[in-house]
Design goal:
Blueprint (H helix, E strand, L loop, with lengths): L1 H6 L1 H20 L1 H30 L7 H19 L2 H25 L4 H19 L24 H5 L5 H19 L1 H11 L1 H6 L4 H27 L11 H11 L4 H23 L7 H5 L1 H13 L19
Helix pairs in contact: 2-3, 3-8, 3-11, 3-12, 3-13, 4-5, 4-6, 4-11, 4-12, 5-6, 5-11, 8-9, 12-13, 12-15
Keywords: Cell membrane, Membrane, Transmembrane, Transmembrane helix
Subcellular location: Cell membrane
Organism: Phycicoccus elongatus Lp2
């Protein structure tokens, strides 16, 4: 533990400072602080899940530009699956299923057929926008609201418990578990070692007996389930509605978050929370009439922040060595 803290000293110090400032604001104005922090977490949940999709894909050597399309189609399938079937469970399964199918499509076209990964992702996004716009029908309603629970014990913790574990839905809880689970998996398990190997040195991994093609196919496909959950959360939990183009670039924001987080799940989650907090703070300042700007301008804040983040991260973080490169087994 001490060695880990020493290696990540700056991140630990920054995290402690941010946490202390958050508690100071919490105790000075509990109502406003909780409102802001809960809004930030709600905004961050789909970003966290989508960033994890990107982390798994790029750690495996596959660029997933199609996260935006996966998110949008999953939101569409989840909402209308629940609306037409009258079952929230059917909606959730529909959204997750679409995420898996699109993840499998991207994996197969880029890994097996060696299609250009950027083009494959762009095509997926365009098709997703067209399909969801064409089949969209207004006036549909969910059969019920997504259930929310308070976790006994954890929900009573000041600030942290009240934001993350009080009145929270199952997908938000899954996002928390996924962050820690995938981080542990990537850096403490055989699966993680092999995943990082096929993303850094696929030829060496192949020589060591790892099936690079199969592992990339499986990783990218299964990561699609997280994009599916993000879409379901977006349409069935945070808004309880679906609108054309409601993903609103979150898939691309998630890629920026992934880069800012240096392809590490914990750092990516922290970056997503930062994005959420900045958005929540801007909305709160506007509501309090501290700043008098059009809401459309506030809505552009995450995208402006994306440019700033990418500019800051440029040259300071290193992508996996073989990301974006199709693997061709020697002798074939």
């Amino acid at each position: 533990m001490a060695a880990w803290i020493q290696r990540n000293k700056f991140s630990v110090i920054l995290g402690v400072v941010v946490l202390v400032l958050a508690y100071i604001y919490y105790f000075s104005d509990k109502t406003t602080a909780l409102s802001m922090y809960r809004y930030a977490w709600t905004y961050a949940v789909p970003l966290v899940l989508c960033a994890l999709v990107g982390v798994i894909g790029e750690r495996s050597g596959v660029v997933n530009i199609g996260i935006e399309g996966q998110l949008l189609v999953s939101a569409f399938a989840g909402f209308f699956g629940a609306a037409y079937s009258g079952s929230l469970i059917v909606g959730i399964l529909s959204g997750v299923g679409c995420g898996l199918i699109l993840g499998g499509f991207l994996a197969w076209t880029t890994v097996k057929w060696r299609m250009d990964q950027i083009i494959a992702g762009v095509v997926l996004n365009i098709v997703a926008t067209g399909i969801t716009s064409f089949y969209y029908k207004p006036g549909q309603l969910l059969p019920a609201l997504m259930p929310h629970w308070s976790i006994p014990g954890l929900s009573s913790i000041p600030l942290i418990g009240e934001v993350f574990f009080k009145g929270t839905g199952v997908i938000a809880l899954i996002a928390i578990i996924a962050v820690f689970g995938i981080h542990f998996g990537l850096f403490k398990t055989t699966w993680g070692l092999r995943t990082r190997a096929i993303g850094e040195y696929p030829s060496a991994a192949d020589t060591a007996g790892i099936n690079v093609i199969t592992m990339r196919l499986v990783n990218v496909t299964l990561a699609g389930a997280l994009a599916g959950l993000a879409g379901v959360f977006l349409s069935m939990d945070s808004t309880s509605s679906f609108e054309r183009g409601m993903s609103a670039g979150r898939g691309f924001l998630a890629l920026a978050i992934m880069i800012f987080g240096a392809w590490r799940p914990l750092r990516a989650a922290a970056a997503a929370l930062f994005f959420g907090f900045v958005t929540a703070a801007a909305s709160q300042l506007q509501a309090d009439q501290v700043i008098n700007v059009p809401p459309q301008l506030v809505g552009t804040l995450p995208y402006v922040l994306t440019l700033v983040v990418l500019a800051v991260a440029a040259g300071r973080v290193r992508a996996p060595g073989a990301v974006g490169q199709p693997f061709v087994k020697e002798g074939k």
